[in-house]
Design goal:
Bound molecules: 3,4-dihydroxybenzoic acid
Strand order of the largest sheet: 1-2-3-5-4-6-7-12-13
Number of strands: 13
Distance between the termini: 47 Å
Order of helices and strands: EEEEHEHEHHEHEEHHEEHHHHEHEH
Largest sheet: 9 strands, mixed
Strand content: 15-25%
């Protein structure tokens, strides 16, 4: 109904005869040959086949009995790139040139490296059907990704690649969904939604998660933002219409918080220590990570330590950091950092509340709408302070389904063991506290996590594919020898 394409299947069996052999040239002598299986509807009861479909690409070598990087048709990891940005609908990805900048995209490089690529489409917050009903509000995005994973596993014997080695990758809202997919494997709370769309009745846990700057833990992100940015009154905000396509170049609107916004900032900041302390996080040495009522304490020291490690790596690579007066450097070593000065260096991007806007104007308000309501609140704080008429709050259970923090190591849940999370030191789209809480929780629950704050990176992802692929290769070979 939403698309002129006709469904390729009305059952869940992968048709290995429906493909095109292709090759792509990066213009610099690298040619990638692959078999393309495209627009595969991954559920039996689709609501929107444009988005509930997947492209699968397989390196040609695997049909010729050859290996790439010691992977074969049986052992190749399955790279699962999530195309969602801004919690908007995402169409299935395809190999080709980058949308922005020069060079080839991640899927091209993943195929060249020898991965099977399964690129799922996903419903998003603005999808509507022909009657005008919204069809992609939360939790549709995560339900679709789980259904796509189930399709792969249902067809494990028919699709090249190892379904025990599915590695999801995403940036921002896509990074959040990558984390949620990895955290919540097989959890029954998603069961009725999956049944409704006709997802394959098999497991949906994945092997590993790659997540760049996840915009996650949304119901605590406002307080985390003000814990970091409180006192920073000037902001550089993204123009509202640019949220519609996060790939657009951002033009920033400058402003200063007014009195009532500054007061909201103070109130939200005060809520953060109780939340952080409720998590009972521990540092790697087992000591508790906490905050006092003023927002100071060992958790804040950990944030400073991680920033300091990032700056130290930059110095060790020969980058001159003398202009950063928030850093104290002695004989090439960082000896102190000033977090307040750091925050004025990176600058505030969002006005309080950063995510659950009082006038329901944020993308996240739109994500938490319903079939008939375009936007809703998702925190009690913003519901209480709402300036919108007849504002509602989304169901607690739906809010819960979008937050990976609820599922890491939970009972009857298979959380991915391997995680790689990156959040740039100049990324202001969410508080640094958010990825640090996520990474620490994963570590405390026994997951293996590779976490870093890349120096001076702004909001974005896929900027270090060599390192990402090296990490995937190592964890995948661990698995083979275990
Ligand atoms: C994205 C960025 C945001 O600032 C946000 O609030 C949600 C999503 C994004 O780039 O996907």
């Amino acid at each position: 109904m939403n698309s002129s394409q006709s469904p390729t299947t009305n059952n869940l069996f992968f048709d290995k005869t429906r493909y095109e052999d292709r090759q792509l040239d990066d213009g610099h002598g690298e040619i990638v040959r692959f078999r393309a299986f495209e627009n595969i509807v991954y559920v039996t009861n689709p609501i929107d086949i444009k988005y509930q479909s997947m492209n699968i690409y397989v390196p040609q070598a695997y049909f010729e009995g050859k290996e790439i990087n010691s992977f074969t048709a049986e052992t190749a990891p399955i790279f699962f790139p999530i195309s969602v940005g801004g919690y908007m609908p995402g169409i299935p990805g395809a190999p080709g040139a980058k949308r922005m900048g020069s060079g080839m995209n991640t899927i091209f490089h993943a195929l060249a490296h020898g991965y099977v690529v399964a690129a799922p489409g996903t419903r998003g917050r603005t999808n509507q059907n022909y009657t005008g009903e919204y069809t992609g509000k939360a939790p549709a995005c995560i339900v679709d990704l789980k259904a796509a994973v189930r399709y792969l596993r249902f067809n494990a014997e028919r699709i090249p690649g190892d379904t025990d080695k599915i590695i999801s990758n995403g940036t921002s809202a896509g990074g959040a969904l990558s984390a949620l997919l990895g955290a919540s494997g097989n959890n029954e709370e998603y069961g009725t939604y999956l049944k409704e769309i006709g997802a394959a009745p098999v497991r949906d846990d994945i092997f590993a998660v790659s997540s760049y700057c996840p915009i996650t833990n949304l119901e605590h992100a406002d307080m985390a933002y003000e814990w970091l940015f409180n006192g920073q009154l000037n902001y550089k905000k993204m123009a509202h219409h640019e949220m519609i396509d996060f790939h657009l170049k951002r033009t920033l609107i400058k402003g200063t918080l007014n009195e009532s916004e500054a007061s909201l900032s103070n109130q939200l900041k005060e809520l953060f220590p109780a939340y952080l302390n409720s998590l009972k996080l521990q540092d790697i040495d087992g000591s508790p990570l906490t905050l006092n009522a003023e927002g100071n304490g060992s958790f804040k020291n950990l944030v400073a330590k991680l920033l300091s490690a990032s700056a130290q790596r930059a110095i060790d690579q020969g980058i001159d950091l003398r202009r950063h007066d928030w850093l104290t450097v002695q004989s090439g070593k960082i000896t102190a950092i000033d977090l307040t000065e750091y925050v004025s260096y990176i600058e505030r991007m969002k006005t309080p509340p950063a995510f659950d806007a009082l006038d329901l104007s944020s993308g996240e308000n739109n994500l938490f709408g319903s079939k008939t309501t375009p936007e809703r609140h998702f925190t009690d704080f913003s519901r209480h302070h709402s300036t919108a008429t007849n504002a509602q709050k989304a169901d607690d259970q739906v809010i819960r389904l979008l937050n990976p923090m609820n599922y890491i190591g939970a009972s009857a849940t298979t959380t991915a063991h391997y995680w790689r999370i990156r959040h740039g030191t100049k990324d202001r789209d969410t508080s640094l506290a958010i990825p640090i809480i996520l990474a620490t929780t994963l570590e405390n629950k026994g997951c293996q996590i590779d976490f870093a704050l890349p120096w001076n990176r702004t909001h974005g992802g896929d900027y270090d594919l060599n390192e990402l692929f090296a990490w995937i290769d190592v964890i995948s070979s661990n698995r083979m020898t275990n």
